[in-house]
Specification:
This protein is an all-alpha fold and 204 residues long. The chain has eleven helices and no strands. It has two domains: 87 residues, Alpha Horseshoe (Serine Threonine Protein Phosphatase 5, Tetratricopeptide repeat); 81 residues, Tetratricopeptide repeat domain (Serine Threonine Protein Phosphatase 5, Tetratricopeptide repeat, Alpha Horseshoe).
Length: 204
Amino acid sequence: MNLLKKTLAGIITVTSLTLNSQNKTLASAFSQSYDYEAIAKYDAAISSINAVYSATSYEINLRLGWLNYLAGKHKESISFYQKAITLMPAATEPKWAIINPFTKLESWNDIEKTYLAILKLDPKNSTANYNLGLIYYYRKDYFSAKKYFDVSLNLSPFGYNNMLMSAWTNYFLGNKSQASVLFNKTLLYSPNDSSALEGLSLIK
């Protein structure tokens, strides 16, 4: 029995020492990557993290997504962010992050899907609702745009962008009375606002 206890204690000690060593190595790699990032040496920062890469590490994949984005390697950035999303499907953090390289590549359909995925996890997120509304607005899908602008407007009824974009969306949907109300509210926030004044002139 004593021999078994000693053996187990030895295994635990070795395992603990190994984990501590790995943690120190990982922390050092991250710290070094921050130093390189601070002086815009993004490839060197990437190399620091690659030296300790683990496909099952959410933090490593997230960090590499960001560093590759900074380095202008947008496809690589997307790949790492997608791995992070797979590892932590309930997290909105990597979904927000992946929008950056998608935007650089003008991958609007992927951006739309990402915002929809965020809203499944966080339905009342004002930014996601507003930005998704913008996507549909510029596609001239005003019906869909209104659905998302309405959520954002209800969350921040006196938000400048929410009021103005909701006003224009209602105008294009033929809801001119509602558009007029929103254009006038926009002028309370931003007196002499050229866009709101234009909208009111079209209604009159």
